[in-house]
Every structure is written in structure tokens, then in C-alpha cells.
Amino acid sequence: MTIAIVGAGLGGLTLARVLHVHGVDAVVYERESSRGARGQGGMLDIHSGQRALREAGLFDGFLAIARGEGQDMRLFEPDGTLLLQEDTPDDAPLDRPEVDRADLRDLLLDSLPEGAVRWGHAFDSADNGVLRFADGSRAAYDLLVGADGAQSRVRALLTDARPAHLGQNVVEVGIPDIDRTHPDLAAMVGRGNHWVLGDGKSLAAQRNGDGRVRIGLSFHNTGEDWFATSGIPFDDPPAARARLVDLLAGWDPRFTALIAACDDVVVPRSITALPVGLTWPSTPGATLLGDAAHLMPPVGEGANMALLDGALLGLALAAHPDDFPTAVAEYEREMFERTSAAARMSADMQELLMSPDAARRLLAFFRPG
Ligand SMILES: Cc1cc2nc3c(=O)[nH]c(=O)nc-3n(C[C@H](O)[C@H](O)[C@H](O)COP(=O)(O)OP(=O)(O)OC[C@H]3O[C@@H](n4cnc5c(N)ncnc54)[C@H](O)[C@@H]3O)c2cc1C
């Protein structure tokens, strides 16, 4: 019985690892040509997903890469008013540590046997137990697991649902080696998260393990065509930075100084999500996990759910090695309930963050009463 996993992201690799721990073989097909072919983005806050890393036998490895101080938080209003500052004590429990996405992916990749991941295999289509890849090659499968992320191609085998734009567009920029290049800004950002929430705009800066500060500038209640009409020249980074500073007119100069200090990596990102509570009739031979199954707003649940999906599907398959349909039905029942709750919570948080009085509402969220 051949298990084919499409996508070597956090969810697909966790599934492969948990299967490996239980002596079940699987092959992971990944479209990227190698593990380093593409940057893996910034930090992830890992909480409920810690259980998955225990099931994968990788908890000690996780602790070695987890950054407790990454939980620090500073919340400002655009005029510079500091509303909240929380610094994590050295002996605080690692309830929600930050981990570099690339480190976590490497931990999972290094835990798999040689050849478990077939790089350079972009899934194209599947039917009658045969996978087809973009380069024309083929492979046989008994169970196909779509772990191919937000823009999943496998998803279409199970549901017509597609991610919808949430009225939020983000421009990602960053300051490399901030301690050396801009120590004053490094002190303002601190060791973890630095948020400025305004009316219709927000700035989320976060220190990464490699000394880079990644900054996401969000523009709320903006449409799918916003990048084309925003006047941000993405092919001219200095002019793009100048335009971003203009778009933050009236903000405290310390915050616009963050933008001016960024390097030439300027990336547009539209925020989309699948419908909350998406399900599909259980189908023998195929299922989904992670963002492919339940893409939600990026407020700290997606990676945790993907890790849990991978681990719990792995455990279900290991418990029913001769009966994949039963294992898949068991997995999907639990996954639909758990991830619907997480998606609802994420949608509520997204609504709060996009509201005109987001800063005060977030303060009340963290400091109720
Ligand atoms: C800015 C940002 C910040 C975030 N922060 C957090 C956070 O703090 N905490 C949290 O829990 N979540 C966070 N998330 C969400 C989290 O990153 C995702 O939910 C998580 O990575 C999903 O994992 P996955 O394995 O489903 O998909 P992915 O990690 O996206 O992996 C999918 C893999 O499939 C591959 N692939 C795609 N198409 C094909 C194909 N056709 N053939 C073969 N391979 C293919 C891709 O190359 C990729 O390797 C954040 C998201 C964003 C955008």
C-alpha cells in the first residue's frame, strides 16, 4: 500500500515522520528542486502543535530551536503611545515559543530516511491510482494526501472550494542584521513582536533568529486589485519604501524609520482563506491536510493545525495499516471539528485586527477587565 504525500511543508513532513516512527513507508513529492530552493519565511508561534512534535519524537530537537524570548510583545498606537509591553522571563514556560520556519522544516527533513522526499516533483493531476507530475513523470499510489498548501492542486479532487480574498493586503519588508546596522531600531523592536495598529493599517515587526527583523505592513479593507492601484513600484525598492512611508502619513517617525531602514526585498502578499468549517464527503484514496484543507487568516493557528493534522493522520494510518478508508474517515472527523474551531477563532481575531479601534481592542483582549 503506497502512501503519496504531495508537499514537503510542515504538515506533509510531520505525516511522513510519524508514519516512519511507526514503521509505515510514505513518499513525499515536492515541487521545489531542493530544501534551500526558496526562502521559508519568518517565525512561527508554536503552541498546540507541540503535541505533534512529541508524537514525531522530535520534542527535544524542537526545544533546541525554540526561542522563548520571541514571545515578547510590544503594542503601540500610530502616534507612538505604548499600550502594552510584555517581556518573557528567562524561566517562563515555553507555551508559545517562536521558531524559525526553516529550522522547523529542517528538523523534520533531517528526521526522514534518505530519499523519502522526491524534490522537483510538481503534482499536476491524479486518477485511478496514478499521480502525474508537471514534467510528465508518473507514480502509483493507494492513498494520496494533499499537503500542498494554500494554492493546493490536490484540493480540487475533494471540493470545489477556493480561497477567497479577505480584504487585507500585506507588503513584506525587512531589516537585515538589525543589531549591527540599526541598534536604535533594534532596541525599539525588542526580542519578539512589535505591533502598531492603526485605523485601516497596521505594522507587525518581528525579530527572527538570524538577526533580521521582518516587517509586514497591512492595508485593510482593500480589494484584490489593490497592489496594482496602490502606487507601490515593487520593481524599484527605494521608491517602494518611499511610497510606503507616504502611506503611513501621520505615524510616529520612529515607525516610518523602520521602513526606511529596510533592504531591497519588497514582497506583496494578498491574504485569503477557505470558508470556515469547510468539509467534504470522505473519499477513499484521497484526503487533505494543513492549508490545503483549511487555509485561515495568518494569526498564529495555521502551522499548529498543519502539524497536528500530519501527526494525527499518521497515527490513524498506523492504527489501521490495512484499512486506509477507515483511518482517513477517523482523521477527517477529528480534523474538521478541531480546525473549524481554530478557523472561527482566527476569523474573529482577523475581524478585531482590521477594526478601526484594533489597538484598544487587542489591549482589552490581552488585559481583560
Ligand atoms: C506571514 C505568515 C505568518 C504566519 N505565522 C504563523 C504562526 O505564527 N503560527 C502558525 O501556526 N501559523 C502561521 N502561519 C500559517 C502557516 O505558515 C501555514 O498554515 C503552514 O505553513 C501550513 O503548512 P502546510 O504544510 O499546510 O503548507 P506549506 O507549509 O505551505 O507547505 C506546502 C508545500 O507544498 C508544496 N507544493 C505546493 N504545490 C505543490 C505541487 N503542485 N506539487 C508538489 N508540491 C507542492 C510547496 O512548495 C510547499 O513546500 C503564517 C502564515 C503566514 C503567511
Automatic annotation (TrEMBL):
Q: Which cofactor does it need?
A: FAD
| GO terms of molecular function | FAD binding; monooxygenase activity
Record carries keyword Flavoprotein: yes
Reactions performed catalytically: a tetracycline + NADPH + O2 + H(+) = an 11a-hydroxytetracycline + NADP(+) + H2O
Spell out the subcellular localization from the entry.
Cytoplasm
Pfam families referenced in this protein's UniProt entry, alphabetically = FAD_binding_3
Output the Gene3D superfamilies linked to this UniProt entry. Answer: FAD/NAD(P)-binding domain
Q: Per its record, how is this protein called by name?
A: Flavin-dependent monooxygenase
Xref: PANTHER family: FAD DEPENDENT OXIDOREDUCTASE DOMAIN-CONTAINING PROTEIN, MONOOXYGENASE ASQM-RELATED
Which residues of this UniProt protein bind NADPH?
A: R38
Mind telling me which HAMAP family this protein's record contains? TetX_monooxygenase (MF_00845)
> Predominant location of this chain?
cytoplasm
* Family to which the UniProt record says this protein belongs: Belongs to the aromatic-ring hydroxylase family. TetX subfamily.
